[in-house]
Structures are given as structure tokens and as C-alpha cells.
Specification:
The chain has 151 residues and is an alpha+beta fold. It contains three helices and seven strands, in the order E-H-H-E-E-E-E-E-E-H. Strands 1-7-6-5-4-3-2 form a seven-stranded antiparallel beta sheet, covered by helices on one side. The longest helix is centred in the C-terminal third of the chain and has 32 residues.
């Protein structure tokens, strides 16, 4: 099971970073390259514990839907979402926010299992893990830009 971990320092208060990361509207804005949008469940505003959201996006030229549920919410330091249905066999995405001097360290930990057994493992090695790492890093950089331009 691949584990992707990405850290991004943001010159903004922990509460600002936390709220931006769980805001559906901001998520849509920071994933514009894949035309991601919320189509069911919570479709705007802030995600809370127990909420589900269905995202529609285009990855690898294919329009896909994925439903995630927020299973942990420890404001303003951590929230976790897990896949309910979607292209992966499973995933757990932990979003952590650590207050540091001059800002916040945002840590994404994305643990996933590809579908299709051994074929999925090959796909991980060939392209999927690299693709997901770039996707998570891109979103983190976009959140950083928004947070740092708010003040």
C-alpha cells in the first residue's frame, strides 16, 4: 500500500490553513487542472466530521467520481477523509496542521490501495504514485498561495 507524505510550510495561522483545506469551494479552486467539483453531499462551505462529498474530476482523460467521508475532525490540527466509493480500492487521507514560528506546517499523508490487484501494483510503480504525489503537492502549493495572500 503506497503512502505519500507531503509537507508544505505556509506563512499563515493554523486556523486559516485548516479552514482553507476543508473548504469545498477552495478545494475546487485548487484542483482546477482536473476540473474537480463537488456534485453530491456537501457541495459548498466547510466539511465537518461525518460529512460526505462526491467529487467529479478528470484524471488521465477520464471523467471520474469519488465519494469521501470525513471520519476525524480535530480543529484546527487534523482531519481525515476516507474513500467510500471511487477509482481506488481504498484510501485514507490525513490532513495535519502544526503551528510553527511564523506560520503552519501542513502535512498531507495519503495512503491508498490501487484497484485490480497485481495490475494496480504495476500501475503504482509506472505512474500512479508519481501522479498522486504531484497532485497533492500542486494542491498544497495552491493553498499556500491563497493563505499567504489573504493577509
Amino acid at each position: 500500500m503506497p503512502v505519500i507524505e507531503h509537507q508544505q510550510f505556509i506563512k499563515a495561522p493554523v486556523e486559516v490553513c485548516f479552514d482553507l483545506a476543508r473548504n469545498v469551494d477552495i478545494h475546487t479552486q485548487t484542483t482546477s487542472k482536473t476540473r474537480e467539483r463537488a456534485v453530491s453531499g456537501v457541495t459548498e462551505g466547510f466539511l465537518e466530521q461525518g460529512d460526505t462529498v462526491t467529487w467529479e474530476a478528470t484524471h488521465f482523460g477520464i471523467k471520474q467520481r469519488l465519494t469521501a467521508k470525513v471520519t476525524v475532525m480535530e480543529k484546527p490540527h487534523k482531519f481525515v477523509d476516507v474513500m467510500v466509493t471511487g477509482a481506488f480500492h481504498s484510501f485514507v487521507h490525513t490532513h495535519q496542521f502544526i503551528e510553527e514560528a511564523g506560520g503552519t506546517m501542513m502535512i498531507d499523508k495519503f495512503q491508498y490501495k490501487s484497484p485490480f490487484g497485481p495490475i494496480g501494483v504495476v500501475a503504482d510503480k509506472l505512474f500512479l504514485e508519481k501522479y498522486m504525489t504531484a497532485f497533492i503537492a500542486s494542491r498544497a502549493k495552491a493553498l499556500k498561495k491563497i493563505a499567504e495572500n489573504m493577509e
